[in-house]
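Record 1 of the preview.
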Amino acid sequence: MSLPKRGHKMSNDERIAILETTVGHVHETLERMEKNIEKGFSQVVSRLNNIETKIERVENRMDKINDRLWSNFIWIIGAIVAVCAVMAHGFHWF
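->
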């Protein structure tokens, strides 16, 4: 419904009709915006879940590396003790 030209008085029914039309358009726009926001939110949540999964994988790898480093450290300490024992025996320290 188009607005009347200046000088023309609108009746209350015409004004109400224009307001109802405007409210309908605003309502439709808000519904579209809500759907777009929900869609965007679900995409963000999906991406965050993917990032969380990747972080968990990296944490698992880091735990494995940490375990391996400690294992290597224990082996190195054992090897150093063994070499020192052989040297001590060779030099007749005990």
